[in-house]
Specification:
binds the ligand N[C@@H](CCC[C@H](N)C(=O)O)C(=O)O, Diaminopimelate Epimerase, Chain A, domain 1, lysine biosynthesis, EC 5.1.1.7
């Protein structure tokens, strides 16, 4: 049977969204994620996100990368899930809760003309114990640890936002060869569950530029959890303020990690592109 889907993106970080509120998945989501994500033979996306009923929240999300692996969390994705449940009338309110691989998150929606446009997410506290990130790099968390990858030594900081991230502050993100180093960095032995890898450049203490190589999907135009990790690494290394704007290839995200060291807050857009049916 055909599967209804909606294509949405947060700053060009695009996923195919399948609601399981009114239809069932025919089988294993991993091969489906690989087939749908293919930019030549499929719909074309950075992965697949399932939106399902939850006993603890307005909805539950599961995210699969373009290679079919499952990620615990997706920052750009969770904003789009909030938009979907609001705009489709599953939870028509300006504060919604979504169950994710890192627990139930609360999201505040800016609504215009009856549709959610921007979303502020309480992303929960960063995970800073190296064994929980997980990484074998020293420190809780590891900050600016020199690590050799792709023939160069990068000062790496590791942070988990439910999913693992490595951040290297560099002088020039635009000129950094992330496309060539990304595959090796993602699978570096210091990260036993692989890693989402980011280079970031401080413009001023409240503003950074960053680029991302995502675990399981490669280069993406934005990464919400990654931007949170950059914010936390910037604060812990003394480079940035607790409130920053991150410029990503697909647009800007606002991040804040208040002085209580608890939740990181992320604000950005959620955009619907089109809907269709995937043949059964
Ligand atoms: N694009 C996402 C992160 C997606 C998950 C990642 N590839 C993983 O495997 O952890 C975001 O916006 O946070």
């Amino acid at each position: 049977m055909a599967l209804r889907f909606t294509k949405m993106h947060g700053l060009g970080n695009d996923y195919v969204y399948v609601s399981l509120f009114d239809q069932a998945l025919p089988g294993d989501p991993s091969p489906l994620a690989r087939a749908m994500s293919d930019r030549h033979f499929g719909i074309g996306s950075d992965g697949l996100i399932l939106i399902a009923p939850s006993e603890r929240a307005d909805a539950r999300m599961r995210m699969f990368n373009a290679d079919g692996s499952e990620g615990e969390m997706c920052g750009n994705g969770v904003r789009c899930v909030a938009k979907f449940v609001h705009d489709r009338g599953i939870a028509r309110k300006d504060r919604v809760t979504i169950e994710t691989g890192r627990g139930v998150l609360t999201l505040d929606l800016e609504i215009r003309g009856g549709k959610a446009e921007r979303v502020r997410v309480d992303m929960g506290p960063p995970i800073l114990q190296s064994s929980d990130i997980p990484t074998t790099l020293p420190g809780d968390p590891p900050i600016d640890v020199p690590v050799e990858v792709g023939g160069r030594v990068l000062p790496q900081s590791a942070v988990s936002m439910g999913n693992p991230h490595a951040v290297a502050f560099v002088d020039d993100v635009a000129g950094f060869p992330l496309e060539t180093i990304g595959p090796e960095w993602e699978r570096h032995s210091a990260f036993p569950r692989r890693v989402n890898a980011h280079v970031a450049q401080v413009i001023r203490r409240g503003e950074v530029r960053m680029r991302t190589w995502e675990r399981g999907s490669g280069i993406t135009l934005a990464c919400g959890t990654g931007a949170c990790a950059v914010c936390v690494a910037g604060v812990l290394s003394g480079r940035t303020e607790r409130r920053i704007v991150a410029h990503l290839p697909g647009g800007d995200l606002e991040l804040e990690w208040p002085a209580d060291d608890a939740s990181v807050f992320m604000t950005g857009p959620a955009t619907e592109v089109f809907s269709g049916e995937w043949p059964g």
